[in-house]
Amino acid sequence: MNAANQDSLISWVGGKKQLRKTISQYIPNDIQGYIEPFGGAGWLLFYKSRWAQLEVYNDINSDLVNVFRTAKYHPEALLKEYEYMVASRELFGQVRANPGFTEIQRAARFMFLLHRSFGALGAHFGTSKVTPVKSQQHLLKKIDLVSKRLDKTMIEHLSFEELVAKYDAPGNFFFCDPPYFHGHDYDLQFDHMMLYDVLSEAKGKWLLTYDDCQEARDLFQGYWMKSLVRQKGIERRHGDMEYKEVLIANYEPFKQGLNTTLWDDD
User: Fold this and answer.
1) Which of 3, 134, 198, 210 is most deeply packed, by most CB within 10 A?
2) Which part of the chain has CATH 3.40.50.150?
3) Which of 72, 188, 88 has its CA nearest to residue 136?
4) Which residues contact residue 209 at a Cβ distance below 8 angstroms, ignoring those fewer than 6 apart?
């Protein structure tokens, strides 16, 4: 099956949309399982139609998990719930005040807040003096595509240490995109040392992304590392448009070519 290069259903802080083509080159082509402990918006997951026979999306954020689980199992209901949620500042305020009661309501309203907010942060209604309003139809079309893509993907809602413990095996691969040392302030209490301890004991291969800082390099010293540079998003400042990140791996990934493994649907 060829690469899907499919868009995610949502945007999320720290998403790997810009870097997924580059990162995909360093994923081993002999893996039995592809697992994301910090799934987020799933940009790398959606980059291919199938990474491995076993695929697992996980996130500790219940709203993220609910969006993808609802899209997978109830795409028609999610589409129906979302299709009349027009671009409206008043509606945005109402949705922020009432996130919904059912899983389908919660999924649609969470998507709406991300889709219609500045920087996909869900906090402030997004408008522009020069660009048109975001297309409603574009997002609605994604729901069915995402549902089909997730058909054989396990969706979990566990801490990263629980997830790794459940799925760790010599043939499995973990793509880890945790909260950064100096990233967005949504999770300043993240335990980086625990992540190091869990990964250092893993039987499977793993590839980790971090902000390219001394703390990350010191913590994971001795592992393979490669620097990356991307354009900044919402945190842009005049004259400071680049953001440096680092890939860290427990295998030697930076001499191999593109991942070209093809998987059947059977």
Assistant:
1) 210
2) 20-60+158-249
3) 88
4) 16, 19, 23, 176, 177, 245, 246, 247, 248
pTM: 0.86
Q: Which two tokens stand for residue 212?
A: 């390219």
The structure tokens 């993808």 sit at 68
Q: How many residues are there in the chain?
A: 266
Q: What is the pLDDT of residues 182-200, one digit of tens each?
A: 866 555 689 999 999 999 9
Q: How far apart are CA 164 and CA 91, in angstroms?
A: 40
CATH fourth-level superfamily of 20-60+158-249? Vaccinia Virus protein VP39 (3.40.50.150)
* Class in CATH terms, 69-149: mainly alpha
Cite the residue boundaries of each domain of the chain with CATH code 1.10.1020. Answer: 69-149
Dig out the tokens for 32 from the structure: 């039995």
Among 44, 47, 37, smallest CA distance to 154 is for: 37
Banded pLDDT at 123 (limits 50, 70, 90): low
Tens-place pLDDT, residues 47-98: 999 999 999 999 999 999 999 999 999 999 999 999 888 888 888 788 888 8
Tokens of 244: 């440096």
Q: Is the Cβ–Cβ distance between 170 and 202 less than 8 Å? A: no
Contacts of 97 (CB under 8 A, 6+ apart): none
Q: Among candidates 1, 2, 260, 5, which has minimal Cα distance to 145? A: 5
Residue 255's pLDDT band (cuts 50, 70, 90): low
**pLDDT score, position 238:** 47
Tokens 């729901």 correspond to what residue? Answer: 143
